[in-house]
Design a protein that fits this description.
The complex is a heterodimer.
Chain A: E1 5-7, E2 10-13, E3 19-24, E4 31-37, E5 43-50, E6 53-56, E7 65-69, E8 75-79, E9 88-95, E10 106-107, E11 111-115
Chain B: E1 4-7, E2 10-14, E3 19-25, E4 29-37, E5 43-48, E6 52-56, E7 59-64, E8 69-74, E9 83-91, E10 100-101, E11 105-110
Parallel strand pairs in B: 2-11
Antiparallel strand pairs in B: 1-3, 3-8, 4-5, 4-9, 6-7, 7-8, 9-10, 9-11
The chains are: A mainly beta, B mainly beta.
Chain lengths: 116, 111
């Protein structure tokens, strides 16, 4: 596609439920990133993928959070047993990453998650 | 401690004014980007600038990697420049894709 897309744009869930957030990167981009942005705050790194591998998962806040990427394209961020503190905007970015290309990220519009 | 620090945290400008935003980082970096987050939340790329100087219209940026800072200049500001400006870096001590964002500078441009 022309840009990074994310779905859903808004998600309201009840505490304790599981949610899945989806990210479609820019076509051909090999790297994909997930961030969380709480209200009025900066972006918090969660995880990134190079291809289907996740070299750095250090930003995932707890074992309730997981992410996968298949086919080197779409990625899903899953939050199990959601808590109210998980409420935030979840942002995805992608970049074309190679030896001779610069690692410049482009962001999607985000998914606003509200946990009641 | 804080690894990416942005200043000032808030900035109010009258339309037509110039301003400078600063990003300090605690270690050497191999990647630095500036973004503008508009009032609708979309992050827009401004500059990819791990070193050197670039200009794009009324915006320009300079990164002095050896002194661990980057500056974003806004000239002749317009109301559409309002929003939050973030710098994001990848430290050389971190994995290649681990971007760290500063807390941002909230800019309000008044007519």
């Amino acid at each position: 596609g022309a840009g990074v897309s994310q779905s859903p744009s808004n998600k309201v869930t009840e505490k304790g439920k599981d949610v899945e957030l989806r990210c479609d990167p820019i076509s051909g981009h090999t790297a994909l990133y997930w961030y969380r942005q709480s209200l009025g705050q900066g972006l918090e790194f969660l995880i990134y993928f190079q291809g289907n591998s996740a070299p750095d998962k250090s930003g995932l806040p707890s074992d309730r959070f997981s992410a996968e990427r298949t086919g080197g394209s779409v990625s899903t961020l899953t939050i199990q047993r959601t808590q109210q503190e998980d409420s935030a905007v979840y942002l995805c970015a992608s970049s074309s990453w190679g030896r001779d290309t610069r690692n410049e990220q482009f962001f999607g519009p985000g998914t606003r998650l509200t946990v009641l | 401690g804080i690894q990416v620090e942005q200043s000032p945290p808030d900035l109010i400008l009258q339309e037509g004014a110039n301003s400078t935003l600063r990003c300090n980082f605690s270690d050497s970096v191999n990647n630095l980007q500036w973004f503008h987050q508009n009032p609708w939340g979309q992050l827009i790329n401004l500059f990819y600038i791990p070193s050197g100087t670039k200009q794009n219209g009324r915006l320009s940026a300079t990164t002095v990697a050896t002194e661990r800072y980057s500056l974003l200049y806004i000239s002749s500001s317009q109301t559409t420049d309002s929003g939050v400006y973030f710098c994001a870096v990848v430290m050389t001590t971190d994995s290649w894709g681990k971007f760290q964002f500063g807390a941002g500078t909230q800019v309000v441009v008044t007519p």
